[in-house]
Amino acid sequence: MQSNEASTSMDVETISTQTKDVVSTLPPKPQFDPLKPHEMNDGRVQFRKVSVPPHRYSPLKKAWMDIYTPIYDQMKIDIRMNLKARKVELKTRADTPDISNLQKSADFVHAFMLGFDVIDAIALLRVDELYVESFEIKDVKTLRGEHLSRAIGRLSGKAGKTKFAIENATKTRIVIADTKIHILGSFANIKIARDSLCSLILGSPAGKVYSKLRAVTARLAERF
Fold it and tell me: I need a surface site. Which of 18, 76, 138, 223 has the fewest CB within 10 A?
């Protein structure tokens, strides 16, 4: 037994010494300097353009400095309004720290154009896992005339009560623009909010939707 243990320990020592010899003969790892921002894209300047709908032109003029300041100062992206083309133009700079800042800024401006407040849309610049999802009422159910008006009324509720309840329960922001619905939030939360809105479109009473929301949010709270 002792001879077997001694031979085993000798084999382990031999393997470890061989490994050390192999490691010592390997060439040293190359040391690369981190890429500079302009090198990530071969030094090319990247552009994005966001169209401005006619009904968002006046709100854009009022909130321009609130949009301009975080994009230019924090994200290091150049931004301007092209009055002739009616588009907001974004461009990377030499000191842009990350190329993804351009897309984040474009998403932020696009969310504002969809109708979200600047305070809500600015979260797209600061949080990575946020998205905007859009759909129309006709995607869920074909409604016309008074039936469509009643469905929009069910989505909003009296003085917006139903919409606020869904927003607070799912930690999302919802914009109801005529027959189009836009939801801003994380992937899982958007799904819960969308399911609730679809139930309301299909004719479920608000009380039933509230109770289902409470059950889902309680389950999510337990998971975390």
Answer: 223
User: How many angstroms separate the CA atoms of 44 and 39, rounded?
Assistant: 8
| pLDDT tens, residue by residue, 78-131 | 999 999 999 999 998 888 888 888 999 999 999 999 999 999 999 999 888 899
Task: Please give the structure tokens belonging to residue 162.
Answer: 């139903």
Q: Where are the beta strands (DSSP E) in the chain?
A: 47-51, 77-82, 87-92, 131-136, 173-177, 180-185
| Whole-angstrom distance, CA of residue 1 vs CA of residue 9 | 13
DSSP per-residue string spanning 132-146: EEEEEHHHH----TH
**Helix, strand, coil fractions of the chain, as percent rounded to 5:** 60, 15, 25
Structure tokens at 208: 């039933």
Whether residue 19 contacts residue 61, with contact meaning beta carbons closer than 8 Å, is answered with no
**CATH 3.30.1370.10 placement within the chain:** 44-126, 131-223
- The strand pairing partners of 128, in sequence order, are none
The pLDDT confidence band at residue 2, using thresholds 50, 70 and 90, is: very low
Residue 75 DSSP symbol? S
Rounded Cα–Cα distance for residues 71 and 76 (Å) = 6
Q: Give, in order, the Cα–Cα distances in Å from 1 to each of 5, 13, 21, 44, 222.
A: 6, 19, 30, 71, 56
Q: Is the model's pTM score more than 0.85? A: no
Fold of 131-223: Ribosomal Protein S8; Chain: A, domain 1 (3.30.1370)
